[in-house]
Amino acid sequence: LLYTIKFECSMEQQDVFYKKSDYIETANNNKVSRQSVLCGSQNIVLGGKTIIQNECIIRGDLANVRFGRQCIIGAKSVIRPPFKKFTKGVAFFPFQMGDNVMIGESSVINAASIGSYVNIGLLTVLCGDVCRTSVPC
Question: Which of 16, 61, 63, 105: disulfide with 81, CB 3.0–4.6 Å?
Answer without folding.
Answer: 63
